[in-house]
Amino acid sequence: MFEQIEYSQSLEKNYQLLIKQLEALIEDESDPIANLSNSAALLNQFLDRINWVGFYLLREDQLVLGPFQGLPACVRIDIGKGVCGTAVAEEKTQLVADVHQFPGHIACDARSQSEIVIPLFKNKKVIGVLDIDSPEKNRFTKQDQIHLEQFCEKLMAYLPEII
Asked: GAF domain location, by residue (predicted)?
């Protein structure tokens, strides 16, 4: 199935290993919910200093909570609202060092201090987002963004058109 992640000194190597672990988890499974669930669990295991990781899926004009790891979360988010809704509206990753400085931030967990939200694309259309929160300000770096975007691209390659 897959092996326990061994952490190395190199963040780059760790992310490469993470993506290999992702492929091992999802390559033989066709169910999108199972794959999103295992992807959230894998990220929760891999990433340190986070308090929430999961997916929101686009349903008509709202993001609806999907598989996640963490405390209960907001169930629906309007497009253009909060960090997740902004990522969909702008079709680009939102790297937020301090969520309290983000206009319209939606506080699902009061402990969250920083956040990264990566839009999920299928056939050049946004179908949802990967949302990761941290209880630390400035937790996520540009390097995290690059590798998490690669993670999402790999995940989307294995998911069917409609999830």
From this structure: 53-153
